[in-house]
Specification:
Blueprint (H helix, E strand, L loop, with lengths): L1 E3 L5 H13 L3 E3 H6 L4 E2 L7 E6 L7 H7 L3 E2 L7 E7 L6 H11 L6 E6 L13 H23 L4 E2 L10 H11 L5 E3 L8 H5 L5 E4 L2 E4 L9 H5 L5 E3 L20
């Protein structure tokens, strides 16, 4: 059983690759949260994977909200692992997840990290295609290494992108500031397709007067709306007007 959260496809890609090997259910955390599906039964010998991107060196609000209500209904203690995707460092996201799972009587056995192209265009421009391709190729190797370790259910913190962990408390505090929605808007390129409203995990977007409007003060800042807009019409203040967009080229979204 694999739970995943993904805005632009990096974590979805990792989840699909692991699912190809491990099988079982592949569960979109956003769907589960919106449908209030928090109770799951795990088959004997089945692993539980939790795959998501790091946000400000910590947990995305969507993941945190879901985990805080997650219940695993079985007597046996399953092997539980997490794979955290990042642009550079996962900070203390693994430890944060472990603490939350412990409160749900679930033990996190292993932590893995995968470096993939960054998509937080509200702060940084995306890498050029050559660098993206190189990063994705390296990610393939990291996924293969993880698959090998999971064959024997190796227990440890195998993440190798946590060098910014000491800054987690400061960075994650900023997450609450930066995930405000007031700077989002759609420019004249908007064709009123409605995709942004459909894919927003926070349900923060509503199409009114043929334009997307952000109806909540805060969202998860998953970047799905801004990166997946087919006309690149969504902007964040003036900072993203000249910046590129990123979607993992190896995935096909079913919610589009």
């Amino acid at each position: 059983m694999i739970f995943y959260f993904s805005g632009t496809g990096n974590s979805l890609y990792a989840a699909e690759k692991l699912h190809d090997v491990e099988g079982g259910e592949l569960i979109n955390i956003t769907d589960a949260l919106n449908e209030k599906q928090f109770k799951y039964k795990v088959k004997e010998g089945e692993n539980i994977g939790i795959i998501f991107p790091v946000y400000f060196l910590g947990l995305p609000t969507i993941v945190s909200e879901f985990i805080s209500q997650l219940t695993i209904e079985n007597n046996a203690k399953p092997f539980v692992y997490t794979i955290i995707t990042c642009g550079s460092s996962i900070g203390n996201a693994g430890k944060m997840l472990s603490k939350q799972l412990k409160q749900r009587d679930i033990h996190l056995d292993s932590v893995f990290s995968i470096e993939m192209p960054s998509n937080y265009v509200m702060m940084f421009d995306v890498k050029d295609k050559q660098k993206q391709d190189s990063s994705l190729k390296s990610a393939e190797n990291e996924i293969e290494d993880i698959v090998e370790l999971l064959k024997d259910n190796k227990k440890d913190d195998f993440s190798n992108h946590g060098y910014l962990a000491p800054l987690t408390s400061i960075a994650y505090m900023l997450y609450g500031v930066y995930r405000k929605t007031k700077n989002f808007y759609a420019d004249d390129k908007c064709n009123n397709c409605g995709l942004c409203e459909k894919i927003c995990p926070s349900k923060a977007i509503k199409i009114t007067s043929n334009k997307p409007n952000w109806i909540k003060d805060k969202c998860s800042h998953c970047t799905a709306c801004i990166n997946r807009c087919p006309t690149q019409a969504i902007q964040y203040s003036d900072s993203t007007i000249k910046r590129g967009r990123y979607i993992n080229p190896n995935v096909k979204f079913t919610d589009a």
